[in-house]
Amino acid sequence: ERTEFITYFHHIIDRFEMNIPEHITLERELPKERLYVLIDQDKLTQVLDNIISNAIKYSPEGGKITFNVMKQKYQLVVAVEDQGIGIAYDKLDKIFDRFFRTDKARTRKLGGTGLGLAISKEFVEAHHGKIWAKSKEGKGTTIFFTLPLLGKKRRVKS
Ligand code: ATP
Ligand code: MG
Question: Which residues make beta-bridge pairs with 25?
Fold first, then answer.
């Protein structure tokens, strides 16, 4: 459905904020402007839930999770940045594969099946978006995805 993304995103973050581990802080860098997208809210909520849960789960020492939304010409770029364990450069693409989990994730006994990002990728692509990651081992990770923006609704004079 047609959705104002910033309001929707605030609601998602609010839900996490109510139940966040003490050592984690959330920071929002979201534009004030209204930005409309055409999304399946259930699916996009699964995408964001997984990305945000990962950011929390893979930040065992805590730190800040920053939410950023940037408007490019015809699309939104959403970024979720953490200061967690990070991902080695040669594993960056693999994290979107089914059942892939880094050794670090497995040895830390953090639960998971390795499906979250594979599903996220499938859903983002079904919305004609792209998803990718930047990371530095031991420093943190940022997950980015894009969504096409809807044009402003034009009122037709009658
Ligand atoms: P699931 O989401 O199915 O419960 P999962 O979190 O292990 O399990 P994905 O969400 O698909 O699986 O992530 C795949 C792997 O990518 C993780 O196991 C972890 O190794 C790595 N990863 C994902 N997000 C992060 C992050 N924010 N920081 C560090 N590593 C990450
Ligand atoms: Mg996950």
Answer: 64
